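Students often ask why inverse folding is considered easier than folding. One informal answer: many sequences map to the same fold, so there is more than one right answer. In these notes we will look at a single instance of the problem. The structure comes first.
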C-alpha cells in the first residue's frame, strides 16, 4: 500500500486521517478549479517541497517534488532538520506561486533563514528561477488581496538574548511584476498568550481578514490560532473561544501535535483545514512516523468564527460533496525500469543526478555510486522512502564487490546523521565479503561483530529491513532463503523526540522529519565504488 494514498473506503465518503502518512509536515493546501494540492516540508531531503494531488480530499497521489535541482536550492552541507521549512503554495493570475524557507541553523537563538519564491503556469513545472526574498524569519507565505495586491507574511525572528525569538507575524508588499519586495515591513500580529507564533496564512471571507497561525511550538502543545480584522494591517482580534484546533491536554487522542494549518474552500462552499499531526507509539511517546498531514471539516457560519467539532483532530471526517476520485495504487515493487527514480523515493542532501544515481548503464537496476560517511553532509549516497506505517518493510537484492572496509552497501532504517540502523556488505580484513550490522543512537555507534555473516562468493544478496512497532529487524538471503539476524533494534530512536537535544535551554539538535527505509552506499576512500540494486519492494501491514 502506498504511503501517499489514504487507505479509505470511498463509498462511506469519509476522510481517514492522516491523509498523508509518514513524514509530510506543515501542509499548505490549495484548490485550483476542481483540483486540490498539498505542499509539505522536506528539510534536508530532495526533491524539496513534495506536492500531492486530489479531486475529492479523500484520495491523494504524489506528484513528486518541486525543488528537484540545485538551481532552486542547494542543500550541500545542510544540517539535520535544516533546509526546506513550511512551504506555501498559492495560485493567482494564472500562475502557481511557491514560497519556501531555507533555514540554515537553530543554535544560540539564530536561524539564518532565507526565503525564496518560484512560479510556474503548471503545478508540474517548469518552475522559474528563485526570487530571493528576505531572511528576517521563516514560514513565509503569500496573500493575494482582492484589490490585486500581493503581500508576503512570515514569522519575524528576534535573535537578541532575553527577547521573544518569535517576534510576531510580519507583512510586506510584494510586486509581482517587478518580482521583488517593496515598501517597509511591519508587524501584523504579535500572537496570543500561548506564544511561539509562526506559520501564518491570511484569507478574505465574510468581510474580514482572517489570520491563521501555528502556536505553542511543534510538539504536544501545538495549536491552530485564528484572529480576524476588518483591515489588512489590523488590529487583529484572537478568537475568544480559544484555538480552532489542538490536541493539547488530550493524550487519549490518536492524533497528537495538531497544528500548523491552512484552509481550503471547496467548489460547493464547504471549508476544510489541512494540518500537521503526529501518531505516538505510546501516550505522548515517540512519533517514529514523523509529522503527518490530516484534514478536518470546518463549519463557518456567516458572521461567526470558524469551528472544528470539539476543537480536536478527528480520525474520520465527513468528506466534501464531491465525486469520489480514487487513484491507481502504487506498485509494491520498483523494478527500476523507469528512466528516473519513482516519486516514492527521496535522496539525502543532493538531487538524484546521473553522476551517482544511474538507471541507464545497467537497465532494470539502480546503480548507486558510493558517497560519504553517515556524518557527511555534502555528498551522501542514500536513496530512501518514507516509513508510512508501524509495521512495514523494505526488501531489495544487491550486487556489490567491496575491495576493503571503506566500501559499504546495504539497507538502512534511517532518521538523521546521528540516528540509524544499517545492515551492509563490506570486506573483512581476511579478504572475505561479509554482512555486518551497525547502529547509531545520537552518534553513539554500536557494532554487532557476533552477528557477522560470511557472504563471500555470493553475487546476489537479499536484504530486508522490517519495522515492527517499536522494533527494527533485519533479514538476509544468500540464496538459501531468508534468515533473520537474531537481534531487535530500537525503532523509537528514529523519531523527532529522540533526535531533539536541549543544552542549557538552547537546541543543540532538533528533529522535524521522520523515519526512512533506504538503500545506502558508502565509499569512504573515494575509490569510485558502486552497488547495483535489482529491485526494491515496500510493504505495509
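Output (designed amino acids):
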Amino acid at each position: 500500500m502506498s504511503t501517499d494514498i489514504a487507505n479509505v473506503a470511498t463509498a462511506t465518503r469519509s476522510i481517514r486521517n492522516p491523509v498523508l502518512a509518514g513524514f509530510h509536515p506543515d501542509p499548505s493546501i490549495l484548490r485550483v478549479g476542481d483540483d486540490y494540492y498539498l505542499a509539505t516540508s522536506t528539510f534536508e531531503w530532495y526533491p524539496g517541497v513534495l506536492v500531492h494531488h486530489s479531486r475529492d480530499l479523500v484520495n491523494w497521489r504524489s506528484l513528486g517534488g518541486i525543488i528537484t535541482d540545485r538551481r532552486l536550492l542547494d542543500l550541500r552541507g545542510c544540517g539535520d532538520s535544516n533546509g526546506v521549512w513550511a512551504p506555501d503554495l498559492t495560485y493567482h493570475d494564472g500562475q502557481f506561486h511557491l514560497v519556501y524557507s531555507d533555514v540554515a541553523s537553530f543554535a544560540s537563538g539564530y536561524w539564518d533563514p532565507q526565503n525564496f519564491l518560484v512560479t510556474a503556469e503548471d503545478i508540474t513545472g517548469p518552475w522559474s528561477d528563485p526570487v530571493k526574498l528576505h531572511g528576517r524569519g521563516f514560514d513565509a507565505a503569500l496573500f493575494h488581496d482582492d484589490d490585486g495586491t500581493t503581500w508576503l507574511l512570515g514569522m519575524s525572528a528576534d535573535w537578541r538574548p532575553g527577547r521573544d525569538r518569535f517576534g510576531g507575524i510580519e507583512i510586506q508588499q510584494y510586486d509581482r511584476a517587478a518580482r521583488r519586495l517593496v515598501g517597509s515591513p511591519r508587524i501584523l500580529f504579535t500572537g496570543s498568550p500561548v506564544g511561539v507564533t509562526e506559520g501564518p496564512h491570511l484569507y478574505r471571507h465574510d468581510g474580514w481578514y482572517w489570520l491563521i497561525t501555528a502556536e505553542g511550538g511543534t510538539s504536544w502543545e501545538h495549536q491552530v490560532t485564528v484572529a480576524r480584522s476588518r483591515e489588512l494591517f489590523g488590529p487583529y482580534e484572537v478568537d475568544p473561544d480559544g484555538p480552532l484546533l489542538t490536541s493539547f491536554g488530550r493524550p487519549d487522542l490518536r492524533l497528537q501535535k495538531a497544528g500548523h494549518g491552512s484552509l481550503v474552500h471547496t467548489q460547493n462552499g464547504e471549508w476544510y483545514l489541512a494540518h500537521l499531526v503526529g501518531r505516538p507509539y505510546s501516550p505522548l511517546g515517540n512519533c517514529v512516523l514523523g509529522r503527518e498531514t490530516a484534514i478536518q471539516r470546518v463549519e463557518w457560519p456567516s458572521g461567526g468564527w470558524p469551528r472544528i467539532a470539539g476543537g480536536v483532530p478527528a480520525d474520520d471526517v465527513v468528506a466534501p460533496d464531491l465525486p469520489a476520485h480514487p487513484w491507481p495504487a502504487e506498485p509494491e515493487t520498483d523494478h527500476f525500469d523507469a528512466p528516473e527514480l519513482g516519486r516514492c523515493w527521496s535522496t539525502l542532501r543532493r538531487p538524484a543526478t546521473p553522476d551517482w544515481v544511474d538507471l541507464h548503464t545497467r537497465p532494470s537496476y539502480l546503480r548507486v555510486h558510493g558517497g560519504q560517511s553517515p556524518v557527511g553532509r555534502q555528498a551522501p549516497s542514500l536513496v530512501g522512502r518514507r516509513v508510512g506505517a508501524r509495521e512495514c518493510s523494505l526488501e531489495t537484492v544487491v550486487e556489490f564487490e567491496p575491495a576493503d572496509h571503506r566500501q559499504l552497501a546495504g539497507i538502512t532504517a534511517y532518521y538523521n546523521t546521528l540516528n540509524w540502523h544499517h545492515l551492509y556488505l563490506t570486506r573483512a580484513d581476511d579478504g572475505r565479503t561479509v554482512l555486518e550490522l551497525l547502529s547509531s543512537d545520537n552518534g553513539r555507534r554500536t557494532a554487532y561483530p557476533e552477528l557477522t555473516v560470511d557472504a563471500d562468493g555470493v553475487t546476489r544478496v537479499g536484504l530486508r529491513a522490517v519495522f515492527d512497532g517499536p522494533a527494527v529487524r533485519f533479514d538476509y538471503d544468500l540464496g538459501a532463503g531468508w534468515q533473520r539476524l537474531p537481534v531487535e533494534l530500537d525503532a523509537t530512536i528514529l523519531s523527532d523526540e529522540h533526535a531533539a537535544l536541549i543544552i542549557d535551554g538552547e537546541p543543540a539538535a532538533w528533529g522535524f522529519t521522520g523515519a526512512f527505509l533506504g538503500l545506502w552506499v558508502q565509499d569512504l576512500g573515494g575509490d569510485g565504488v558502486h552497488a547495483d540494486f535489482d529491485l526494491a519492494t515496500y510493504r505495509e501491514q
